[in-house]
Amino acid sequence: MTALSNRPVWKTFCEAARSSPLSSVDVRVIHAADIDVDLSTQRHSPALTDASTELLAQQGFEQARRDLFEGGIVNWTENRPAWHTALRAKSPPAAVAQDIQLEQARLASFIEKANSHNLYRYVVHIGIGGSDWGPRLAVESLKGRSSRRTIRFASNVDAHAITAALEGLDPHDTLIIVSSKSFTTTESLANAACAIDWLRANKIKNPLDQFVAVTANPKAARDFGISDDHIFRFWDWVGGRYSIWSSIGLPIALGLGQDALNDMLAGAAAMDEHFLTAPIELNAPVQMALSAVVNCSVLGYASLALCPYDARLQNLVPWLQQLEMESLGKSTMLDGNKLDVPSSPVVWGMPGTDGQHTFFQWLHQESKGAPVDFVLCAKPDHRHNRHHRLLIANCLAQRSALLEGKSFEEALAEVRRTESDPQRAAILAKHRVHPGGRPTTLIVLPQLNARHLGELLALYEHKVFTEAVLWGINPFDQWGVEFGKKLAGDIERRLDALGSDPDVSPYDASTAYWVKKLASG
Question: Could you give the residue numbers annotated as active site?
């Protein structure tokens, strides 16, 4: 099959993108569910709109979107659906409705029992990757509203993570949740074993009575020793990084209340409806994806900065890093050919205004910089109005400066106010030039609550799905992750060969050196 870069539709798309302006005159705001997405400072023109429509058609977007929502095989390398939208649908598709509603009812019953009997003042959630970032983001972002319980998270296999999560808790009033799709994840099981030891050391006779498992492999959880009534299921058609909508949301409901989890699901469902029904030109996830492909594949931007101007959303950055980079970090297309255009930018960032004092210098004056997604809440959840005005002012000012820049003439006039030497003024002015022309997207939530957070996460999910369709790659597998995990297991077995000389023949020289050195202590 012809390489993507050589297809006429792709060439037309690239030409239209390069010739389209970053418009600061026309305001292009898309209202999606309750969220406003301002794409005014992304490339846009009638020619690009037409070319984008043709590209989406060539790449089979309409069919791919139908398959996503109808349970088609969109995860083609593992021959299964990616049906996370079914988990938040008001009326789930008939093929999976009974399973979904049964698990939702079981989860609600467990939460109601815990609440009515005042069980578990403390909850420690053990998971990693998709089993961790979603619930961690939700709990940490929304906990200021209503925190019924203390919720802590442990993901890293470094024992400092689990010991810090357990420190200071009452072991008699602590629930341990182990969330793992396969229930074979090395990090999570190692941390679970540490939690068992902690409970036993504190005279808990049956530690596993205080464990809950959330998994797609109930048998492994039973074999671990967790009782059936404490095992909550999701399915292999739920990708890990999309699993927050399943029973993985348990810590959200325990910490913030069942209503918070339900509101997140409702918000995500509202964004699903927008993605399914809005015309392409007014479809926020699709237009964000098209802008992302223009920025990365056509204009050559290698990264995307995410700057939420709300300190509570600090975990949105690693959540999106995983969603984008684990989903899109691929270079093989459906037909097995290598993708021959740049894809999957590096995602990085931190909340504003901290980011302004950390990396915005690079964004403004490095020769190329990076596109930026700004996320802002229109209303705060505090009474410090001046703080919020300052936050809004900084967000809008940075976005404007990235677009407009500062010319040499403007910089020179500025310098001349304090520097009388013309030659030195000209030199100093060059240091104050800002190229401008940096693409940005502004996402405005009415305020930060569970519903709007659900909408925001689903917005990015559908954006990433559309990018994958445009590039012809599978966003639902992660073979790179699996390869590294297999190697780690092999190295661990050799490190365990204490007192012997481990076989290091399979490894490169450096790895072999460190296996031998660290195995010997």
Answer: 326, 357, 485
User: 416: which residues sit within 8 A by CB, 6+ positions away?
Assistant: 425
d(CA 43, CA 40): 8
Q: Dihedral sign for Cα 458, 463, 469, 473, please.
A: negative
DSSP state of 54: H
Give the three-class secondary structure for 379. Answer: coil
Q: pLDDT digits over 343-399, tens only?
A: 999 999 999 999 999 999 999 999 999 999 999 999 999 999 999 999 999 999 999
How many whole angstroms separate alpha carbon 97 and alpha carbon 35?
28
| Dist. CA 243–CA 86, nearest whole Å | 11
Dihedral sign of CA atoms 405, 408, 409, 412 in order? positive
The fold of 15-76+267-404+438-471 is Rossmann fold (3.40.50)
pLDDT per residue over 308-318, tens digit each?
999 999 999 99
Give the C-alpha separation, 395 to 378, whole Å: 12
How many residues in the chain? Answer: 521
Three-state DSSP string of 204-264? CCCHHHHEEEEECCHHHHHHHCCCHHHEEECCCCCCHHHHHHCHHHHHHHHHHCHHHHHHH
Q: Give yes or no for a contact between 162 and 194, defined as CB atoms under 8 angstroms apart.
A: yes
Closest Cα partner for 281 from 290, 272, 292, 270?
A: 290
DSSP string, 30-49: EEETTEEEE-TTSB--HHHH
- What are the DSSP E strand ranges found in 410-459? 440-445
Give the Cα separation of 290 and 39 in Å (integer): 11
All structural domains of the chain with their residue ranges? 15-76+267-404+438-471, 91-256, 479-519
Hey, what CATH topology would domain 91-256 get?
A: Rossmann fold (3.40.50)
Is pLDDT at 1 greater than 70 in this prediction? no
CB neighbour class for 469 (10 Å; exposed up to 12, middle 13-18, buried from 19): buried
Q: Do 15-76+267-404+438-471 and 91-256 share a fold?
A: yes
Dist. CA 519–CA 499, nearest whole Å = 8
- Asked whether the whole model's pTM tops 0.85, one would answer yes
Identify whether 353 is preceded by a cis peptide bond (ω within 30 of 0).
yes
